[in-house]
Amino acid sequence: MRKCSAVITAVGGYVPENVVPNAVLEQKMEIPPGWIPKYLGVRERRILNEAGAGTSRMCIETSLEICRKRGISPEILDAIILATSTPDMITPSTSNIVAHAIGASKAWAIDINGACSGFISALDIASRYVEQGIYKYVLVLGADKMSAIIDENDRITAALFGDGSGGVLLEPGPLESGIQDCFLRTDGSGRDFLFVKAGGSAWPATSDTVDNREHFMYMDGKAIFEYAVLQLTESINGIMQRNNLTADDVIWLVPHQANRRIIIRTAEVLQFPVEKIMINVDRYGNTTAGTIPLCLWDYEPQLKKGDKLILAAFGSGFTWGAMYMIWDYDA
Taking the model in full, what pTM does it have? Predict the structure, then answer.
């Protein structure tokens, strides 16, 4: 039995100052004007171009904002759970780097790699510790520096992905608020449709892997599209049915910002009003694990205590899932 619920008490985010509009890519790659917003729904993205700055750079800013907004010192954080596919280094963990940088000297810190659904997975993991009374203050971050693994000569991925970080603070709250339910799944047959081949233990870095550009992400967008829509709609429908919810009950659907076509197609299948869907892919692109918390960051001023939210994501692997939560404060 849960002792309490894990509720979000503060939201933060960070996107780099460097804005790359579509016009830059259209000129560089000879992309027809209007093609990127039509098919991807992106008009600009943020790129972290500071020398030596990795995913931790963005997470540090996000973490400090969250602590400032909540009025707490990082020293009292019990745990930091960071979802990312682009860690600063293979080891140590990026959450370890963040914890040290912000002064969270008492926090247990761990990274998880759940690709685009990583933030929901991290939230679910964090909620268990809070619900059982093990931890009181848990920082949950989702961030990726996608520019580090994107081939600048690949029209689709260069146009679609961006860099960004978002996060939330979880604390104990009343059972009738906060995270209520979560559904997570994995299907390893999708590994061949979205991956970075080299840099891990199976294909360590060599001069050949660099020359063959195997440290950049490969994506088969056509193969992913239908599967993503299918699993997103099934997981959203499933968690709504499990909690006796209808589209009228849900105030906001918070989907992973894969691209606008997937978001809109999912809404059409669900017959969910577009005006009740958080969308910011047009301004940030797909920031992988950062998209859902960045949506919460952007839309926080519109959130009210008691609002029912469904979070949903689909990512490489394949991995996907949905979460039902009840918002706990007026922004």
Answer: 0.96
